[in-house]
From TrEMBL:
A Pfam family: Peptidase_M16_C
Location of the Peptidase M16 C-terminal domain: 97-212
InterPro entries cross-referenced by the UniProt entry: Metalloenz_LuxS/M16 (IPR011249), Peptidase_M16_C (IPR007863)
Coiled coil residues, start to end: none
UniProt-recorded name of the protein: Insulinase family protein
Domain of life: Bacteria
């Protein structure tokens, strides 16, 4: 109560990281929270169970929603049904989501601060920042012998041209999803060209559908 601070640990495909924010006066509290997330994560059965039930509710009857059903078909198609890319099911959440396993996995990923780079942006006194980072980040465990590396999960996009028509729902509406995959020599310039090309294709597709619809209705 009365504090403006948040810290969130996250694990994604390639990174273990923290994101956080605070008011200037709560900077030290934010650092304390980061330290505790590393050294003393809280294992709460009640909170875990509540979140598990919320997840089950979120994925319950997801195929009854035309939009969700359509997105699931896209995910399955683009990932070739790769387990890490498709949506969860209630059965998976109930069977596979286990507090002890999740807690152990978390502790393994955040057992050492070795390799972490901390970046701070905002309005703060630099000397005050140095003091709290030295106290709460400098004291974090760091296993210098431990080296993390990436693992190829074999997630690959399908090759060739794939066309699918999905019929779902009762409303008189439609959604078009077009995706192009391939390799390229990445640069900011190439990225901008692809973004502009995507916008152009969207405009042309909208014009085509709109003109044909007007002709049809006339």
């Amino acid at each position: 109560m009365g504090k403006t601070v948040s810290v969130t640990p996250r694990i994604n495909y390639f990174d273990d990281l923290f994101s956080g924010s605070s008011s200037s006066k709560d900077l030290e509290l934010m650092m304390q929270m980061v330290n505790l997330y590393f050294t003393k994560p809280n294992k709460d059965e009640n909170v875990f169970s509540a979140n598990k039930e919320n997840m089950k509710s979120l994925y319950k009857d997801q195929d009854n929603s035309p939009g969700t059903y359509f997105q699931n078909i896209i995910e399955e198609t683009m990932s070739q049904n790769h387990l890490r890319a498709i949506s969860l099911t209630q059965e998976q959440i109930e069977k596979e989501l286990n507090l002890d396993k999740a807690y152990q996995f978390y502790k393994e990923r955040f057992s050492s601060a070795n390799g972490f780079a901390f970046v701070f942006v905002g309005s703060f006194e630099i000397e005050a920042l140095k003091k709290v980072t030295a106290q709460y980040l400098g004291s974090l465990p760091s296993n210098l012998k431990e080296k993390s590396t990436w693992k190829d999960t074999r997630l690959r996009r399908p090759k060739g041209v794939i066309k699918k028509t999905v019929t779902k729902g009762v409303d008189n509406k439609s959604v078009v999803d077009m995706r192009f995959t391939g390799t390229l020599n990445y640069s900011n310039e190439e990225k901008d060209k692809i973004v502009l090309l995507g916008k152009l294709l969207k405009i042309k597709l909208t014009e085509e559908l709109r003109e044909k619809w007007l002709v049809f209705t006339e």
